[in-house]
Amino acid sequence: MDFSISHKDKGSKARRGVIQTDHGKVQTPAFMPVGTLGAVKAVHLKDIKDEIRPDIILGNTYHLYLRPGLEVIKNAGGLHKFNSWDQPILTDSGGFQVYSLSQIRKITEKGVRFQSHIDGSYHYFTPENVMDIQRDIGADIIMAFDECTPYPCEYQYAIDSMDLTHRWLKRCCKHFDETEQIYEHSQSLFPIVQGSVFKDLRIQSAEFISEMNREGNAIGGLSVGEPHDMMYEMTSEVCDILPHEKPRYLMGVGLPQNILECIALGVDMFDCVLPTRNARNGMIFTDEGVLNIRNKKWEMDNDPIDIKSRSFAGKQYSKAFLRHMMKCNEILGAQIATLINLNFYMQLMEDSRTHIENGDFSSWKDVTLKRITQKL
Fold first, then answer.
1. Strands 283-286 and 289-292
2. Which residue of 49, 52, 154, 263 has the smallest Cβ count within 10 Å?
3. Which residues does residue 58 pair with via DSSP β-bridges, in sequence order?
4. How many angstroms separate the CA atoms of 30 and 11, rounded?
5. Cα angle for residues 239, 241, 247 (degrees, 5° grid)
């Protein structure tokens, strides 16, 4: 994997770059649509490629491990061939999902024993087998196994959790370096900075992760309920330490305003289920603001959902029609809403890259946020 920076914003720490993988280029800043089970929910592959046009998508190690299972994915030749996506893929480590299973998992030095949310069967994740699982899945970028701390948590818990994540990272790196990729493309391992919302721990973790000298780095354990200002403070501290010449990935973020603010702090990559999940619940992101399409106020509104959307769905369908589809729980409603939201996010990334190139990202961001965060 190679990363190059072509432009820097004059009024912030935002930067414009390109990640080169064996499956193609990722233009940064980049947002990765989440394909938890190998596919982005409610969207055909053709629409992903022709309409949404992301450079990279994300798959979930925990869920793919449980269903369809590694045997099925390996039999197909890896996730790229299994889901017919021939561009870059990133897989998370499963650490966040295990964190969310707090009632049915046990964390030890060796790893995490957990119960499947599907059938209650017991499984074990260790730093070593999580590397093996992600080798089998075959993503271009894979994540180290970590413990994601909850918010809020005690300072001592955050220390112990961070230290455990660092010990696990050493084991991940050792095992990754001692094994070969299974398929015909290379894979890159990203460590994850932890430390909860404690500045000294975030600094310590960022310094440790930087010393591991991997091809990119991630920031985890944020966007788990802490105030946005706290998220920005921790992100800023970490970005000032992580190597300038390597991509920085802020995991699980988030709202459009969170993304733009964190681009300004020096983050290059983002992912979140928010645009797709909220679409299925009727929250639509548009150029003029956010609307709840289920509200009765849209019942007689025959104007396009978002005339400035780069998606045909935003311009073709009316608010009244989409409301009708959503109220009736028609599958088409989820499809339309998902196309609009993901296109909104992709357009936001394209515009961000353009304004970083122009050197006016910071001023553009401030104006844009006032418009797109309005509740319609």
1. antiparallel
2. 154
3. 34, 90
4. 20
5. 50
Q: Is the pTM of this model over 0.85?
A: yes
Q: Could you give the CA distance from residue 71 to residue 90 in angstroms, rounded to a whole number? A: 19
pLDDT tens, the chain, 376 aa long: 999 999 999 999 999 999 999 999 999 999 999 999 999 999 999 999 999 999 999 999 999 999 999 999 999 999 999 999 999 999 999 877 776 777 778 899 999 999 998 999 999 999 999 999 999 999 999 999 999 998 999 999 999 999 999 999 999 999 999 999 999 999 999 999 999 999 999 999 999 999 999 999 999 999 999 999 999 999 999 999 999 999 999 999 999 999 999 999 999 999 999 999 999 999 999 999 999 999 999 999 999 999 999 999 999 999 999 999 999 999 999 999 999 999 999 999 999 999 999 999 999 999 999 999 999 9
DSSP H or E segment with residue 189: strand 188-190
CB 253 within 8 A of CB 58: no
Residue 171: partners with Cβ closer than 8 Å, 6 or more residues away: 126, 127, 128
CA-to-CA distance for 291 and 320, rounded, in angstroms?
12
Rounded Cα distance, 201 and 222, in Å: 13
Contacts with 288 (C-beta within 8 Å, 6 or more apart), sequence order: 306, 308, 371, 372, 374, 376
3 state DSSP class of 23? coil
User: Which two three-digit tokens encode residue 176?
Assistant: 């990754």
Exposure class string for 340-366: b at 16+ Cβ within 10 A, else e: bbbbbbbbbbeebbebbeeeebbebbe
User: For the domain bounded by 2-272, which CATH number is listed?
Assistant: 3.20.20.105
Encoded tokens for 363: 């001023």
| Single-letter residue type at 39 | A
The residue with tokens 């300004």 is 264
Nearest-angstrom CA–CA distance, 313 and 340: 6
Indicate the domain borders of the chain: 2-272, 273-376
Query: Cβ neighbours of residue 365 under 8 Å, at least 6 residues apart?
Result: 12, 260, 261, 263, 264, 352, 355
Active-site positions read 92, 271
Nearest to 218 by CA among 95, 127, 300, 340: 95
